Amino acid sequence: MSPDAKIVCRNVWKLFGSDPVGFLARHGDQPTVEQLSAEGYIGAVRDVSFDVKAGEILVIMGLSGSGKSTLVRCLSRLVEPTAGEILFDGKDLLKASPRELIELRRHRMGMVFQHFGLLPHRTVLDNVAFPLEVQGIERAKRWARARDMIRLVGLEGRETYYPRELSGGQQQRVGLARSLAVEPDVWFLDEPFSALDPLIRREMQDEFLRFQRLLAKTIVFITHDFAEAIRLADRIGIMKDGRLIQLCSPEEMVAHPADAYVAEFTKDAPRTKLMTVRSVMTPWTSAPMEPSVLASARIEDAAPTVLRSDVPVRVVDDAGQSVGLVHRDQIIDIAFAPATSP
Are 114 and 188 in contact (CB under 8 A)? Predict the structure, then answer.
C-alpha cells in the first residue's frame, strides 16, 4: 500500500448471480470466465486491486459493460462488493455499519453522475444547499456555503434560477457545486460530462481542472473517452470484462500499452503532446554540448531543436546533467509512425 494512499482497493469482486459468495468459495476465489459463464454468473468486477493517492485524479475507463461504473459504486458501497477489501484512510469500508456509511457519504464523499439529478422544484441555491440541509445545518450557514460553491463554479447571479432555466452545462455546474458543498475528501464522478455537447464538454473539463488546482481533491473519474482521460488524469486505469488491464500514467500507457485492447484505446492519442523526451531517449554516451533538450520536455516542444540537428542531441535533467541522447528519427517515429500493439 502506498503511504499516501487515500483509498486502497484489494482483490475486489462483484458478481451477480444466485449465490456469489458461495460460488467464489467453491472456486478458491479465482473462478475462470468459463466457470462464471457455465454457472450463470456475471463478473462485473473481477479481482481488482489499486490505490488512489491523496490529491490525484485517477481516471477509470473502458467500453460499456467493462465494469468501470460498478467499480466506482463499490468504492462507496452504493453497490455491495461480493469480496475483497476497500480501505478509506485505513478503515475498512466493508466493515462499516450502515450509519457509518451514511455519515461518510454525507461528510467525506462527493458524487456526481452523468444525469444531473437536480431537484426541479428547487432553485440553484437550494439545490446546492440540499446536502447541507440533510446534514441539519441551519439555513444561513448552508446558504452561505452554497453561495461560495456557486461562485466557484461560475454561476453567481443565477442563485434564484430553476434547473429548467439553465443550459446543460450550467446544470452540470450546479451538480458539481452541490457535490462540493459538503467539502468532501474524495470526489467520485461517473461520466459527468458525457451528455454535454463537445464545446460545453471541453469548457467543463477546463473548469474541472481549475477546481482541482484550487481544491486538490482525491478524485476517481469514470469515462469512456480516452481524449478526456489523458486531459484530466494523473493516472489512467483501463478495464475490460470486469478486470483492470493496465494502470499507469497517460504517457506510459501511450508508450507501452499492456496489450492490443489498450493499444486500440491509445492509437489516436496525441503522442507528441503526451510523451516526454525521457520516454524515447537512448543512454548517454557523448554528443556536442549544444544544443540540448530537457528530459522532461514534451516531444512537441523539443522537436524543433532535435529535427534541425543531423547528429543526436544531448538530453539533460533539470540540473543540467547529461542523461541521454535523442535523434530526429526517434521524433519522426513518434510523430508519424502508427501506434503498434505490444
Answer: no
Listed in order, strand segments (DSSP E) in the chain are 5-16, 42-53, 57-61, 83-88, 91-92, 109-113, 186-190, 218-223, 235-240, 243-248, 282-283, 292-294, 313-316, 322-326
Per residue in 81-106, pLDDT (tens digit) is 999 999 999 999 999 999 999 888 88
Distance of CA 29 to the CA centre of its chain: 28
Fill in the DSSP letter of residue 41.
Answer: -
Whether 341 has a pLDDT exceeding 60, the answer reads: no
The separation between CA 50 and the C-alpha centre of its own chain, rounded to angstroms, equals 13
147-161 pLDDT tens trace: 999 998 889 999 999
Long-range (24+ apart) CB contacts under 8 A made by 29-34 are: 29/83, 33/241
Grid cell of 309 as nine digits? 540537428
Residue ranges of E strands in 70-147: 83-88, 91-92, 109-113
Contact between 139 and 126 (Cβ < 8 Å): no
pLDDT higher than 60, residue 249: yes
Site of grid cell 462485473: 44
Place of cell 481524449: 227
C-alpha cell at 232: 484530466
Per DSSP, the residues of 10-34 read EEEEEEESS-HHHHHHHTTT---HH
d(CA 277, CA 286): 17
Q: How many residues does the chain have?
A: 342
Beta bridge partners of residue 248, listed in sequence order: 236
291 cis-preceded (ω within 30 degrees of 0)? yes
**β-pair partners for 10:** 85
Q: Do residues 282 and 269 lie in contact, with contact meaning Cβ atoms separated by under 8 Å?
A: no
Question: C-alpha angle with apex 175: 92 to 243, nearest 5 degrees?
Answer: 45
